[in-house]
Structure formats: structure tokens, C-alpha cells
Design a protein that fits this description.
The structure holds two protein chains of two kinds. By secondary structure, chain A is mostly beta strands. Chain A has no helices and eleven strands. By secondary structure, chain B is an all-beta fold. Chain B has a five-stranded mixed β-sheet with strand order 1-9-8-3-4, with no helix packed on it. In chain B, strands 2-7-6-5 form a four-stranded antiparallel β-sheet, with no helix packed on it. In chain B, a hairpin with a 6-residue loop joins strand 3 and strand 4. Classes of the chains: A mainly beta, B mainly beta.
Chain lengths: ~110, ~110
């Protein structure tokens, strides 16, 4: 079975541009979360979606937005990119709502903002 | 979610057991203890989790102190593929999926 897939794997943008990152969860998983990992630090929670509804939001500015589609795939959008947005963006999926369900992470999208 | 404290780095030898400690002195009675690890150039990977009792799976064992203020992840026989950053996370059982990662412990395995 395919794991969590993210696209693209690498991306280079310039300041002020907008970017869209994509995530396909494991088949049968209805919940998707997004994390940002800056070099040398642990991942930081951005968003959580379950059954197409936002269920949680981390401490990120409104420039960050996301959505989940009927097939449970998800997109993360970042507007007006800043140099500090350069990071690895990770998507994770889970079958349902319970915290005893482990999260499955993709390999991430490496975003570089120049 | 309770704050966790882990050593920044640890080193061990191949085929020897490894004990990775984690302090979570502010943990509440309903917080679960989760461990994830992140291999180079990959996303985090679930290792194990528990509440009060010690837990075992094919990857590792989790030993939880009686007062639950600390826990230890045990890799029984380390291999070079176990070299990774290990994160200890406490998670309130209320449906939220937000994992709060700290700095983690960077584990180096010597051949």
C-alpha cells in the first residue's frame, strides 16, 4: 500500500510569491495534518483536518491556509512568502479521530524562499 | 500537553541496547506518552506509545515510571538503521491530533 505522498518534493520560490503544496493520505485515512519543520528543529503543527473540516490550527499567520477535498487529499497554501517560510513541510494522515491512532508522515516538501 | 525534556544527543554501539530517557514531570493522568523518530531526509515515524503500563512492539519497548513523570524508550539491539532523532511527546486523549515536538534526542550508532 502506498504511504502518504506529497508533491512536489522540492520547490524554490521568491519572496512575495504564493505556493501550494499537495498531500495524498493513505487510502482509508480521513484525517490530514500539516507540520512545518525548520532546519535543526522539531516539526511544528500548522493545521489539522478531519472529514473536510478544520479541527485544529497552530500558531501561524493567516498567510497560511489549507483545505481538504472529498477524496481526503489536502492542499496547504502559503501567500506572500517570507524568507522565514523556508522549511520542510510535512503532511501526516490518520485513519480516524482517536489519539491512539498513530500518525503516518510523508517525506515532505522542501520549500526554499529566496 | 505536558512539556518533555530529552538529552540533545546520545551515542551507542551497534548490537547493543539503547535507553533513551524522557522527563515529563507535568504530565496529567490522561496524557499518553508517544515516541516518534525521524531518520535523515524522511518524515517522522511512529515508534510506540503508552499510558501507564510498559509496552512492547516489534520496534522497541517503552518503560514508564510508576509516577509517570519519566519514561524510557528501549531499543533492545541497535542497528545502524536506528540512527535518527527520537522525539518523546505527551498527548492528551481528547481527540486532538496535534503533536508538540521538542528538540528530540539525536542518536548516533557506531559500527
Amino acid at each position: 500500500d502506498a504511504g502518504v505522498t506529497q508533491s512536489p518534493t522540492h520547490l524554490i520560490k521568491t519572496r512575495g510569491q504564493q505556493v501550494t503544496l499537495r498531500c495524498s493520505p493513505i487510502s482509508g485515512h480521513k484525517s490530514v495534518s500539516w507540520y512545518q519543520q525548520v532546519l535543526g528543529q522539531g516539526p511544528q503543527f500548522i493545521f489539522q483536518y478531519y472529514e473536510k473540516e478544520e479541527r485544529g490550527r497552530g500558531n501561524f499567520p493567516d498567510r497560511f491556509s489549507a483545505r481538504q477535498f472529498p477524496n481526503y487529499s489536502s492542499e496547504l497554501n502559503v501567500n506572500a512568502l517570507l524568507l522565514g517560510d523556508s522549511a520542510l513541510y510535512l503532511c501526516a494522515s490518520r485513519r480516524d479521530w482517536s489519539t491512539n491512532e498513530k500518525l503516518f508522515f510523508g517525506s515532505g516538501t522542501q520549500l526554499s524562499v529566496l | 500537553d505536558a512539556k518533555t525534556t530529552q538529552p540533545n544527543s546520545m551515542e551507542s554501539n551497534e548490537e547493543e541496547p539503547v535507553h533513551l530517557p524522557c522527563n515529563h514531570s507535568t504530565i496529567s493522568g490522561t496524557d499518553y506518552i508517544h515516541w516518534y523518530r525521524q531518520l535523515p531526509s524522511q518524515g517522522p515515524e511512529y515508534v510506540i506509545h503508552g499510558l501507564t503500563s510498559n509496552v512492547n512492539n516489534r520496534m522497541a519497548s517503552l518503560a514508564i515510571a510508576e509516577d509517570r513523570k519519566s519514561s524510557t524508550l528501549i531499543l533492545h539491539r541497535a542497528t545502524l538503521r536506528d540512527a535518527a532523532v527520537y522525539y518523546c511527546i505527551t498527548l492528551l486523549f481528547q481527540g486532538a491530533q496535534k503533536l508538540v515536538f521538542g528538540q528530540g534526542t539525536r542518536l548516533t550508532i557506531n559500527p
